[in-house]
Amino acid sequence: MSTKSYQNKIANSRAIAEPVWIRWLLIGGALAYLGLFLFVPLAAVFTEALRKGFETYLSAFSEPDALSAIQLTFIAALVSVPLNLVFGVSAAWAIAKFNFRGKSILITLIDLPFAVSPVIAGLIYVLIFGLQGWFGHWLSDHDIKIIFALPGIVLATIFVTFPFVARELIPLMQAQGKDEEEAAIVLGASAWQMFYRVTLPNIKWGLLYGVILSNARAMGEFGAVSVVSGHVRGLTNTLPLHVEILYNEYNYVAAFACASLLAFLALVTLALKTLVEWKTAQAQQPELSQEST
User: Which residues of 89-100 are buried (b: 16+ CB within 10 A; e: fewer)?
Assistant: First the structure.
């Protein structure tokens, strides 16, 4: 072992050799924070949802307004997530594999939903497609409804969720480079064969991770959808908006029951996210071992 590597090993051992009480203090503080702001509210949601029994809990989902809200939530997710998948792969491919003018602008625009409030995003669509908006009169003359209808909800959902897939794939594809794709082209592979046999296997776990995050945000979005929905019960209310209406009407059991469904979907998303992270780590281990040798 060289002197430099030995010194680095000693420095690293000193960096992690903190007193036991400091480690326990940090761990306890982190657990207390998670318990106060995550576990306790989560337990409260399920406790309030089941306060009057399981039959009352299930009856909250049998109401027509609840069924409509659940259906609309899944429709918005089923439309927005595949579109974001296509956009994310295309944008990540362009940014990671090519150099062109406006590349930095494209990256900035992808991050725009992270910087803009979802309420502002919904208001933008109202100003464009609303009755008093830029295209409002033309849409009204042709009997095309976007705002206060399903298209507006889908547009708002797409806006707030489109960065997730691209943001997961861009650093991954940049790190992988383009040597394998170029080798596939030299060996006679077509563009589709190159993507299916070379690119997709390398990015599949990052792609799935981005899809999971995008789907979770799509089903739980409130701000942007609230602005463009119009809050028409049974027609334009998604599940988060339905929870708000039930709570404002003091129908707490039904409100918490519907909220528990969203919480359950969040837990499923978290489990899938953890699985994908584990799979990604497993896939990266052979590469790291090859680099070390």
Answer: bebbbebbeeee
When mean pLDDT is compared over 168-177, 239-248, 265-274, the highest value belongs to 239-248
Q: How many other CB atoms are found less than 10 A from the CB of residue 134? A: 11
Instruction: Please report the DSSP string for 274-285 in residue order.
Output: HHHHHHHHHHHH
What is the model's pLDDT at position 3? 57
Return left, alpha or beta for 231; rule: phi > 0 is left, psi -120 to 50 is alpha, else beta.
Answer: left
Is 81 in contact with 161 (CB distance < 8 Å)?
yes
Tokens of 198: 């070379």
Q: How many CA atoms lie within 13 A of 195 on its CB side?
A: 6
Per-residue pLDDT tens over the stretch 83-133: 999 999 999 988 988 888 888 898 989 988 888 889 998 999 999 998 888
- Our CA angle for 109, 230, 162, nearest 5°, is 20
- In the structure encoding, which two tokens stand for residue 199, read together? 């690119």
Give the torsion sign (CA, 217, 220, 225, 229).
Answer: positive
- Mean of pLDDT over the chain: 84
Cα Dmax for the chain: 79
| Cα 112–chain centre separation | 15
Token couple for 49: 């949802």
- The answer to whether 160 and 118 are in contact (CB under 8 A) is yes
Residues 6+ apart with CB under 8 A from 125: 146, 147, 152, 155, 156, 159, 224, 227, 228
Cα angle value 72/75/80 (rounded, 5°)? 125
